[in-house]
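lol ok so funny story. i was supposed to be doing the assay writeup but got distracted and ended up predicting the structure for this chain instead. priorities right. anyway since i did it might as well share w the group, maybe its usefull for someone
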Amino acid sequence: MDKDKLCEKLSEHLEIIKKCSITSEHGTVLLATILESRYPYVYPRDSACASMMFRQMAEKDLDSNGDAFSMLKGMAKFIAYVQDESGKWGQRYGLNGQDKAIYIQEDNTAYGAIILANYLLACCFRREKPEELEDYLKKIKKAIQYALQHFYREEIFLFFSTTGIHESAIEKGYSIWVNHVYTHFFNLILQLTKKFDLKGLFDEELSFKCRFCQSVHRRFMLSNRFVRRITKEGTFDLRPDVTLMSPVYFQCKEEHCDSCVLDENPDIITNSVNFMVENLWDSELGMLQRYLPFTEDIETHIHAGNGPWIQYTAMLAQYCYKTGAVERGDTILDQIDKYRTVEGFIPEHLSTKRRFEEFIRLEWEVGLDAKKEFHPEILIPNLSYDIIVEELFFMKKSYDKIRRDIYEEKKTVIQFAIPLMWSHVEYANALIARYEYQSTNEQDTVDLAATVKS
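and the output, tada:
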């Protein structure tokens, strides 16, 4: 794929991402899906991943008309607006910045700052000094201080979380995902410090960074692979999970302080990814499940029937391209393409008629799904019941639509949350990874030929 073709494909995904956004006086409201769909909210997690993509486009000359940078700037404005006075960010926000959080989710404080940092770093690449620089740096500093005070456990040098990427107690304790989110966040802060020559601004907050990174790189390792979590009791959670891709997704090898476990044992990521794929690949639908669906476990959410999740599958494609497995990456993206709608929309996850009906019978109709979604251990303290009712409304609305699709359109494969902004982001990131690998290989070939000729 040449650069022009890549830009054309990225533009297609960007147009769909724009359909999930609304321009407001407070900035760009980047929703998880289109307004009338399942998730009409801004999730700092999804937006942070989008900010990583937008910055890549801006810095790699893949944003010819400046749309990606414009989106990044608008997102940063909105995220800055909704930051709590304490310095934290919550799970999700409404169109006007209302706090719509249901779950305690500690990594959002990092996500909000990641968005601001990616915007500032993109500005630096463009040789612009953003007018928001001082204000955003103050907000980032407050976020670090809040996270260290409330989430960091000095005794073992890790961040504790109640929920994270899966939004359930399946992650309660010290999860590999949340701790790599914070590793990535602090690496971005170091980049900011160097790019903007911020003498001493973050010295106190980052004095612990080397010790933290070493802990992250080593504590999640067992039998030559990573584990997804250390429970709050201190035991290893050995179950397979897409979060085993965290180290490569968040590029944890960058800017570490001392020797990294990945330098000493480069096979550990390969072993972890292979273990994940062997256990989570959906043999019927293809692609990755996010974890194994233990229905009876109160900490395991099924969500309309088990099946593969597209954004995580696209992350696997990124890994394939980065490691040179181009054909495997292409096969994965081809598999995702099979489930696009006629508009080109990519869903969040897939299931089947049989699995959905089993979910309705075993979980929804008996109230088990609601018990899982609103499990007291993971809810925001003193959560307004209005927010619970609103969430139940959207849940029932989406499940009723699936029922109609099954019986009226005779569907056997269910596509949930269409389009999911995050799925399009990770698909686009995979395209960029493919282009980068091929460009590097082509340059290596040219360099080798020149060396031989000389």
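The longest helix spans residues 421-453. The mean pLDDT is 93.
back to the writeup now i swear
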